């Protein structure tokens, strides 16, 4: 004979535990989505930003436009920059800092760079096609400026 209240051989406690675990997992997922929507860039974590436009500005000089998720603005503070990273085939990580030329337009930010012979990051970026992603974090930098205030952290 079946116990009263049993669902296909599974007790109510097990069903409640599974439901609670699923709800907690969903809540965590939604929180992470909300956090990413609120802050499209993280200081300590590299995130993928999709290249949506590239323009040749002059000899070996390029302007790349990256998409900011959810139509947000980066609005980098004065004195701050972003860091772009890639990993070479031997496992070595290459990291360079760039100050976006535009970061207040919703849904995008622009990076201007020059490709030097033998330069690692410029040559890596130059090989990206529209639709590819670059791993970027920020804002970083020791300089801080607020109207009437200027400081250098770490000194």
Set out the fold topology.
Blueprint: H1 12-38, E1 47-58, E2 61-67, E3 81-87, E4 93-98, E5 108-114, H2 120-126, E6 133-140, E7 143-146, E8 149-152
Antiparallel strand pairs: 1-2, 1-6, 2-5, 3-4, 3-6, 7-8
How much is the radius of gyration in Å? 23 Å
Q: Would you identify the regions where 5 or more consecutive residues have pLDDT less than 50?
A: none
> What is the string of helix and strand elements?
HEEEEEHEEE
Query: Which sequence of strands runs across the widest sheet?
Result: 4-3-6-1-2-5
Total helix count? 2
Residue-averaged pLDDT:
83
Task: Tell me the total number of β-strands.
Answer: 8
Shape: extended
Q: Could you say which structural class the secondary elements and strand pairing correspond to?
A: alpha+beta
- Helicity range of the residues? 10-25%
The oligomerization state is single chain
The first-to-last residue Cα distance is: 76 Å
Main beta sheet strand tally, sense and closure: 6 strands, antiparallel
């Amino acid at each position: 004979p079946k116990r009263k209240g049993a669902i296909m051989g599974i007790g109510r406690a097990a069903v409640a535990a599974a439901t609670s675990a699923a709800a907690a997992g969903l809540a965590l997922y939604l929180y992470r989505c909300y956090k990413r929507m609120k802050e499209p860039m993280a200081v300590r974590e590299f995130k993928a930003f999709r290249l949506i436009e590239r323009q040749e500005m002059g000899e070996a000089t390029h302007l790349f436009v990256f998409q900011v998720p959810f139509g947000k603005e980066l609005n980098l503070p004065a004195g701050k920059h972003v860091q772009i990273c890639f990993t070479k085939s031997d496992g070595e990580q290459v990291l360079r800092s760039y100050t976006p030329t535009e970061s207040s337009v919703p849904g995008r930010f622009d990076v201007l760079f020059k490709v030097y012979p033998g330069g690692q990051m410029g040559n890596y970026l130059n090989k990206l096609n529209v639709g590819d992603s670059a791993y970027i974090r920020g804002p970083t930098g020791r300089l801080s400026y607020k109207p009437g205030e200027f400081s250098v952290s770490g000194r």
